Amino acid sequence: MAALTIDASQLRKTYGTRAAVRDLTLQVARGEAFGFLGPNGAGKSTSIKMLLGLVKPTGGRALLLGEPVGTREVRARIGFLPEHFRFYDWLSASELILFHGRLCGLAEETLRRKIPELLDRVGLGAQSNKPIRSFSKGMMQRVGLAQAIVNDPEILFLDEPTSGLDPAGRKLVRDVISEQRNRGATVFLNSHLLGEVEQSCDRVAFIRDGRIVSRYEMGGWQSTDTEVQIRVARINSTVVERLKGFTQDVRLEGELLCLRVTQTDHLPEVVRCLVENGVEVFSVIPQRVSLEELFLQMMGPDTGL
Amino acid sequence: MSENAIHVHAAASATGTPSLSLAAGPGALRTTLLMARITFLEAARRKILWIATLAGIVFLAFFWTALHFVLKNAAGQANTISLREAVVMMTMMVLYAGSMMTSLMAVLTSCDTLSGEIASGTIHAIATKPVERWCLVLGKWVGFVGMLTLYVSLIEGGTIGLSWLQSGYLPHHALAVLSLVWLQTVVLLGVTMAASTCFSSLTSGAVSLGLYGLAFVGGWIEQFGALRHVQALVDLGILSSLIMPCDALWRRAAFIFQPPLIGSVGASPFGSSLVPSSAMVVYAALYALLAILLAQILFSRRDL
Asked: What pTM did the predictor assign?
């Protein structure tokens, strides 16, 4: 079995003279949760559609589960929650899952057993016979998630799976992602809610202007130095000078003492030094670069797209 | 190498590992039937089927009432031949209105089916399943053809049936008349579905109805040309029938339906001064098949 579930190399899509995706090169390993990030108009949707076989690439090569994208064999082994999660709204939730399960070629008795389980799992057990037209956005998303996993996919593509969900719904999506991974599935997640990505994914890639600009292990963008903010009172320049024994990078901004240490192990000593010199310490907060901050750094100023 | 991969996967699944979808999807026949069924269900759930049926019943009720009064009024008259002509003429007018109704129904119910699902993104969750795209189109087509068969049977079959019940006149080729009107709707359905793979719902409807209008005008031009012996007009009419053969089908149906005397009334939708040949019927059948084939090819090739 292929170790890489997604293997795209220089995948490209142009519409006339406009390039939607210039170079999509990425590899995702089996069982990984992969976050795919970028601003609006960067080429995320087109990239996902090419991997799913909905859009034919203009150039490049992509394999899913070791086979060319878009073949029926590959599609039997993937699941997809589309961004706009529009479904036949005149069906009930259980009818919709039945329809999608049948499209996957699943046996009727499997579906009969599985549909109530799936609807319970996404919190729609009590609404299984209600028409989807009466559903809220969040409920639509839940039923969309259920159809995406009806065939126990080996790769689960989730395009903005939490955008319409309340906090409980978001937790549900995180839990489902985690369950799917425990089952051995790969999860490919595209989301603007970077906090969700940070909690769910192992690795992220950033796409800008149709090109993958960087890839990180989750948290791998953190520098080895840690910046710490310490809220203090009754401090003077002599104490600040003493701290230079730990680090040269110290500055005092009003009540905030900002310093950079090479190892967080040094922090207790820093605090002890402050207290022993009569400084009152109210809080010590290590500053970490969040995925959102990294995203904003990577993408530069807002272009209003 | 890819065959090996499938084999390994299938073997792994058979021993109880995750994937349930061993075969690559439901297969062409199951997909087609599934889509046909869902298309039917959609029409029923969205009340299109019931409203169209109700409209058809009202249509037939009006015809039945009108026919009743015509026959009642003529009860004392001795000339049964002219009475029969009046009944046939009236039935034909109603059949003509019915053929327009069923044609409109063919266009209006199908113009949104592909373009609408592409525009809304509904198609994304469906086309990423292990099904062939051409089966999705074919299934929808089968569903619509089923509905149109019922609808033509109700409207046109009902018209002929009511006329028969009231006046006792049953054309020898009633089934052929129904088949020709049915083929007319299937031609329009194919064109509408092919258009809706490329254009928006409204544009697809406009394309089909535009061609329907062209065929209608072309039919008149052809008959007028035949009456005035102007070959250029006849050729123009035939050209319009080649571009859209639905009016030619109606004119053949009208010719088959009426007794020979009435057919010579001149240029009208019921006139048979120039009857489209059976070759035109074969052409129309091929046209309908090619239209749906084109829809399948266009839909399979396009980006979604």
From this structure: 0.85
Indicate yes or no: CB of A99 within 8 angstroms of CB of B121. Answer: no
Is the Cβ pair B9, A1 closer than 8 Å?
Answer: yes
Pick the residue of B32, B112, B129 with the most A CBs within 10 A to test the interface with A by mutation: B129
* Closest residue by Cα to residue A97 from A71, A64, A70, A121: A121
Q: Which residues of A touch B18 (CB under 8 A)?
A: 152, 154, 183-185
For every residue of B159-193, DSSP letters joined together read HHHHHHHHH----TTHHHHHHHHHHHHHHHHHHHH
Q: pLDDT digit string (tens) for B65-98?
A: 999 888 888 776 656 677 777 888 889 999 999 9
Q: Confirm or reject contact between B25 and chain A (CB < 8 A).
A: yes
Q: Tell me how far apart the alpha carbons of residues B168 and B84 are, in angstroms, rounded to a whole number.
A: 9
- A2 and B5 within 8 Å at the Cβ level: the answer is yes
What number of CA atoms fall less than 13 Å from residue B38's CA on the CB side? Answer: 26
> Chain-centre distance of CA A162, in angstroms?
10
Instruction: Classify residue A131 by its DSSP letter.
Output: B
Tell me the CA distances in angstroms from A299 to A35, A208, A210, A213, A296, one per residue in order: 16, 7, 13, 10, 5
Mean predicted confidence (pLDDT) in A188-209: 89
Q: What are phi and psi of A90, to 5 degrees?
A: -90, 0
Residue of B nearest to A153 (CA): B19
Q: Residue A220: helix, strand or coil by DSSP? A: coil
Q: B5 to each of A12, A67, A199, how far by Cα in Å? A: 26, 8, 33
Q: How many residues does chain A have?
A: 305
DSSP SS3 for B294: helix
pLDDT in tens, A18-72: 999 999 999 999 999 999 998 888 899 999 999 999 999 999 999 999 999 999 9
Half-sphere exposure of B251 (CA within 13 A, CB side): 31
Q: Are A86 and B31 within 8 A, CB to CB?
A: no
* Count of CB pairs separated by less than 8 Å, A with B: 131
**Residue A189's closest CA among A148, A130, A129?**
A148
* CB-based contact A87 B122, cutoff 8 Å: yes
